[in-house]
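BUG: 3D viewer hangs when loading the predicted structure for this chain

Environment: internal workstation, default settings.
Expected: structure renders.
Actual: progress bar stalls at 90%.

Input used:
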Amino acid sequence: MTPPKARIRLAAALVLAWATGPLAARTWVVEASGGSAKISAAVAAASAGDTIRVGPGTYAEGTITIGKKLTLIGLGRPLIDGGQQGDVLVIAAAGSTVQGFRITGTLVSNINDNAGIKVKDADNVSVIDNVVERCFFGIHVANSRNTAILRNQVLGDPKAPESRQANGIHLWRCSGAEIADNNSRDNRDGIYFEFVTDSHIRRNNSQHNSRYGLHFMFSHRDTYSDNLFTDNGAGVAVMFSKEVDMRRNRFIRNRGASAYGLLLKEINDSVIDSNQFIDNTTAIMVDGCNRAEVNGNLLQGNGWAVRLFANSMDCHFNGNTFAGNTFDLSTNGNPKYNSFSGNYWDRYQGYDLDRNGVGDVPFRPLSLFALVNERMPYAVVLSRSLLTQLLDQAERLLPSMTPEGLEDDKPLMKPPHGTRPV
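Structure tokens produced before the viewer hung:
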């Protein structure tokens, strides 16, 4: 016989629980009657495996900690306000789910990583369809496996100085994470990975962040694809990592004195394929990288399309489109152990007598002025001068100063993919 519904009154809130047997999971309902309902009381009363459904309203309870496997579902986007006491919602139990809430009110701290939603030492946690607003860290995950962060809005304070900002989605020492379909804006870093392996970042929007749209540190065998990084201090920084796969992302208007669409720093065995780099100060910065395959990308309307430093080796650029950039290529030395082949260059003035779509003479994309500007950055003010054009034309006819190894042996006569208005 089915037992009667259990009824528990929490101040002015009504919490209903029902079960189909003594070991069955129960569902608890918290309603903000009179504003005195307590999610924390329902969490304390529930057993592992139960579901708590929270009705509309505001719940101001300081820090709420989930220490057992629970599913929290917000109905009508209830607001959990931490009152600036520390973290707002802490998940410390494997297999838990939090979905459908608005969360605000962390304490800003230079000592603690206070977060709107914090996942700590808990595997297989799902954080789905939440709005995290004006928190120090938005969603912070540490020492956990197989975390799913899906369809969340992580919105920082656009007026806060960088010293009062932290990262939107932050993972430390994790593996197997799925970060998909989130919007992270007005944070310090939109998404941050440190010591994160075998994880995937897909279809996210990361924009108007003061430092990086995405920041990798010491993170291996990860992929990011189909993301948009726009109007950040810098688009993406991948540092001290290996086997990172980057495909079909868009890097747009990441501009500033030291801004990049994509910064590659001390990484090995990476793939950069079919991305769009539009209107960035520097589209791709390659510093101390080995065995990078850069294929099929559109680099258009950037200040520098590629800055390839001489400490990089076995980086291969194939099938890319270079159009409307101030400098297509720049370097600080002679990175002769890298190659360019089969790319389209809008500055190429060669010919194709056999009409096979490939230029009959090689193209040297490194201009003399780009080489001068790398050594004397202030010379950039002369980039549009007649003298600069004459120097580059003379170097193109009688090359003497640009490195011999930096040439495209099979320049394309037509771009392999279309350009777009800038």
